Amino acid sequence: MSCVFCRIETGEAPAHVVWSDEHTMAFLDTTPLFHGHTLVIPRHHVETLTDLPVEAIEPLFGRARRIAAAVEAVLGAQGSFVAMNNRVSQSVPHLHVHVVPRTKGDGLRGFFWPRTKYDGDEQAAEIAARLRTWLTDTEPSADEGTS
């Protein structure tokens, strides 16, 4: 098994486990942005959010929600940053949600990548229309559900 998160999930690789149940596992990131930076994974190996079966959405994000509450309550964080990457910048090809404790003045500013602007309202409207058309015209797959 080459996936390090699958090896953690089965106990073959070490981790500082924060939570484990039949659907999810959460453990501390080995290179945290701040102490308490936790990764929440589905136990079943999927690479990206679009691969996640619809019935696994609530367990994964429900647990991420609880971990966000925990880092605030336990670590005295004023808030949290919750994020995931899909393929680009995804260091481990196993879906994982980052839950990072945040405190005002902690040094993180916005997102971790450069921002851009649309060339104008017309360009933004055109992109929004293309996305809306795809969402309207494309039937959801059986795994995607209808919501």
What does this structure look like?
This protein has 147 residues and is an alpha+beta fold. The protein has one domain (4-115): HIT-like (HIT family, subunit A, 2-Layer Sandwich). Helix content is 29%, strand content 17%. The chain has helices at residues 4-10, 57-75, 121-137; strands at residues 17-20, 24-28, 38-42, 79-83, 97-102. The radius of gyration is 18 Å and the shape is globular.
CATH structural architecture = 2-Layer Sandwich
Helix-strand makeup class:
alpha+beta
Count of individual domains: 1
Poorly predicted runs of 5 or more residues:
143-147
User: Percent of residues in beta strands?
Assistant: 15-25%
Count of helical regions: 3
**Pattern of helices and strands:** HEEEHEEH
Give the overall pLDDT as a whole number. Answer: 87
Number of strands: 5
Q: How large is the radius of gyration?
A: 18 Å
**Quaternary state, please?**
single chain
- What is the name of the CATH superfamily? HIT-like
Give the overall shape, derived from the CA principal axes: globular
Strand order of the largest sheet: 1-2-3-5-4
Report the span from N to C terminus.
34 Å
User: Helical residue percent?
Assistant: 25-40%
